[in-house]
C-alpha cells in the first residue's frame, strides 16, 4: 500500500487510507480570510514547516446555520482542498474536481455527502473538492473589491490542482470539472473565462441554475443586504461587519434574492448561454443533465407538499412562465396545481436552462435525465434535486443521501449508483460516458433509472414552452 505522505509545493502532508482510497483532507490553498482579505483576491502564498496533518476536514465557509469549527482551527482559514486517490504512487490518473452546490450561500467540501472515496476507488480516479467564499464575501458586487471572489477562489484552487495533483497520481492534463446546482453554475462560469484555458479538459454540469445576475441586480442585492446589516455596500465597510452578522443578513433576504455570480464584464465577461452559443466552448466535451422533479424537494422542505394552493400556482405561472401562463395548463392539462407549481419553478430554475445549454453547445455533448424515484416522503418526491449525488458518491448515510434514501438504499439504487459512477468515470477518462452524443435532430438523452434507456428528450412539453426564451443575467427587480 502506498504511503499516505506526499510532498507538495507548500510542504509535506499526511493523509489516511480508508475504504480503498487515500484521503488528504483540509489542505490549505489560500491564506485566512480576515479583515480586508475577506473582499480581496485570494492570497495563495501558503506553506508550513514539518508535516501538515491532512487526515481531517478543515473549517467550512461562514453560512447559516453556522457549521462546527474543528477544535483549535481558525474559522477564517477555510480555503481548503481535499484529495482522494486510489494510488498516490500512480501516474496519469484522470482527475475530477467537484464543485458543491448550496445556492452560492451555503455548502462545504467538508460535507461527508461528497466524500470522494468510492468514486476514486471504483473508477480509479483522483477526486478533488474545495471550499470557496460564499454569500456576500464571495459574490457581492461592491465598490473596492473585485467581483466574483468565490470564482476567483475556485480558479486559484484549479491552479493548485494543476501544480500539485501529480503528487497524488493525477494527470494535470486530464481534469474534468464537475459541478452540481450552484457548483454547476460556478463551473459553467469558470469555463467561459479565457484565462482558465489549460486548467480543464471536460465538464460535467448537473442541475445548472438560472441565477447569474446583471450588475444592476447584483448591486441591488448587495445594497439590500448591507442595509439589513446596518452598513454601506463597500468593501471597506463590509469588512468591518462581523461575518456572522452578514451571514444573518443574507439569510433574512433569501426569500427575495441572494448573492450569486455576476456578469461584471471583468472577471465574468458573459453568461454561459451566450458563451456556448457563440461557440467559445466548442472544443470542450460536456456531459450535462438534470433530475426529473427538480423543485419537489424544496416544496417538501418548505412544508408545502400536498398544500400548494391554486393561488400559489397561479402566482408562480405568472411570474416565471415565458409568454402566457396558460401555456403550462395547455401542455399539462391533467396536472394538479401543485404539479404545475413544481413544473414551472423547476423548469425556470434548473431544467430548461440546463437543457438549453446542451442545445447551444456545438461541441460534443452528452445529455441525461435522472428519473429514479427516491423513497423519501413515501416516493412523493419522484427524482428531486440532489438525488443524483448519493448515487454518484455512494454516500447514503449522510446529509442528502440519508434525507432522500433513508440511509439504507435499495439494491436498485445501489446498482444505479454503480452505473452512474461508471458513466462519470468513463467520461473523465476518455470523454465517452457510454451513450451517443446529443444533437438537435434526435435530442438523444440517457435516462438513469432502475432500467437504463436512451430516448428523445423526455421533457418535450416544457421544451416547447421555453423554446424562444433567452437565458442570461437576471435584471434588476
Written description of the protein model:
This protein is an alpha/beta fold and 477 residues long. The chain folds into two domains: 269 residues, 3-Layer(aba) Sandwich (Rossmann fold); 161 residues, no CATH class. The chain is 33% helix and 16% strand. It contains 16 helices and 14 strands. A hairpin with a 2-residue loop joins strand 3 and strand 4. Helix 10 packs parallel to helix 12. The chain is globular. The model has no long low-confidence stretch (mean pLDDT 97). This is Carboxylic ester hydrolase. Keywords: Hydrolase. InterPro entries: AB_hydrolase_fold, CarbesteraseB, Carboxylesterase_B_AS, Type-B_Carboxylest/Lipase. GO terms for molecular function: hydrolase activity.
Structure summary:
This protein is α/β, with parallel strands linked by helices. It has 16 helices and 14 strands. Strands 3-4-6-8-7-9-10-11-12-13-14 form an eleven-stranded mixed sheet, with helices on both faces. The chain has a three-stranded mixed sheet with strand order 1-2-5, with no helix packed on it.
Amino acid at each position: 500500500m502506498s504511503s499516505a505522505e506526499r510532498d507538495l509545493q507548500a510542504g509535506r502532508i499526511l493523509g489516511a487510507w480508508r475504504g480503498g482510497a487515500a484521503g488528504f483532507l483540509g489542505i490549505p490553498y489560500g491564506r485566512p480570510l480576515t479583515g480586508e482579505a475577506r473582499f480581496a483576491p485570494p492570497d495563495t502564498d501558503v506553506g508550513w514547516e514539518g508535516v501538515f496533518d491532512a487526515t481531517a476536514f478543515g473549517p467550512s465557509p461562514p453560512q447559516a446555520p453556522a457549521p462546527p469549527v474543528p477544535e483549535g482551527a481558525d474559522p477564517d482559514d477555510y480555503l481548503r482542498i481535499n484529495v482522494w486517490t486510489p494510488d498516490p504512487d500512480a501516474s496519469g490518473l484522470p482527475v475530477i474536481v467537484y464543485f458543491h452546490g448550496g445556492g452560492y450561500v451555503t455548502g462545504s467540501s467538508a460535507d461527508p455527502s461528497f466524500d470522494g472515496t468510492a468514486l476514486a476507488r471504483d473508477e480509479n480516479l483522483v477526486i478533488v473538492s474545495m471550499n470557496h467564499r460564499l454569500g456576500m464575501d464571495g459574490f457581492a458586487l461592491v465598490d473596492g473589491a473585485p467581483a466574483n471572489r468565490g470564482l476567483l477562489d475556485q480558479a486559484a484552487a484549479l491552479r493548485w490542482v494543476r501544480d500539485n495533483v501529480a503528487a497524488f497520481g493525477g494527470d494535470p492534463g486530464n481534469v474534468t470539472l464537475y459541478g452540481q446546482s450552484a457548483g454547476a453554475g460556478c463551473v459553467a462560469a469558470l469555463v467561459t473565462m479565457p484565462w482558465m484555458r489549460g486548467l480543464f479538459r471536460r465538464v460535467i454540469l448537473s442541475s445548472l441554475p438560472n441565477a447569474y445576475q446583471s450588475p444592476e441586480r447584483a448591486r441591488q442585492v448587495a445594497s439590500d443586504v448591507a442595509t439589513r446589516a446596518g452598513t454601506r455596500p463597500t468593501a471597506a465597510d463590509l469588512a468591518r461587519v462581523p461575518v456572522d452578522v452578514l451571514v444573518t443578513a443574507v439569510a433574512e433576504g433569501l426569500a427575495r434574492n441572494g448573492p450569486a455570480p455576476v456578469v461584471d464584464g471583468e472577471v465574468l465577461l458573459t453568461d454561459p448561454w451566450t458563451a456556448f452559443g457563440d461557440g467559445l466552448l466548442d472544443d470542450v466535451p460536456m456531459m450535462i443533465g438534470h433530475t426529473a422533479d427538480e423543485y419537489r424537494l424544496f416544496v417538501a422542505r418548505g412544508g408545502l407538499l400536498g398544500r400548494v394552493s391554486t393561488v400559489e400556482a397561479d402566482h408562480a405561472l405568472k411570474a416565471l412562465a415565458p409568454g402566457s401562463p396558460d401555456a403550462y395548463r395547455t401542455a399539462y392539462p391533467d396536472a394538479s396545481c401543485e404539479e404545475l407549481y413544481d413544473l414551472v419553478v423547476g423548469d425556470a430554475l434548473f431544467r430548461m436552462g440546463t437543457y438549453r445549454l446542451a442545445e447551444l453547445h456545438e461541441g460534443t455533448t452528452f445529455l441525461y435525465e435522472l428519473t429514479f424515484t427516491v423513497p423519501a416522503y413515501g416516493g412523493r418526491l419522484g427524482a428531486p434535486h440532489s438525488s443524483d449525488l448519493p448515487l454518484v458518491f455512494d454516500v447514503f448515510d449522510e446529509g442528502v443521501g440519508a434525507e432522500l434514501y433513508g440511509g439504507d438504499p435499495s439494491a436498485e439504487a445501489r446498482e444505479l449508483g454503480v452505473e452512474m459512477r461508471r458513466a462519470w468515470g468513463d467520461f473523465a477518462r476518455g470523454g465517452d460516458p457510454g451513450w451517443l452524443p446529443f444533437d438537435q435532430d434526435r435530442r438523444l438523452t440517457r435516462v438513469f433509472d432502475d432500467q437504463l434507456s436512451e430516448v428523445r428528450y423526455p421533457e418535450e412539453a416544457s421544451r416547447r414552452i421555453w423554446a424562444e426564451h433567452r437565458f442570461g443575467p437576471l435584471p434588476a427587480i
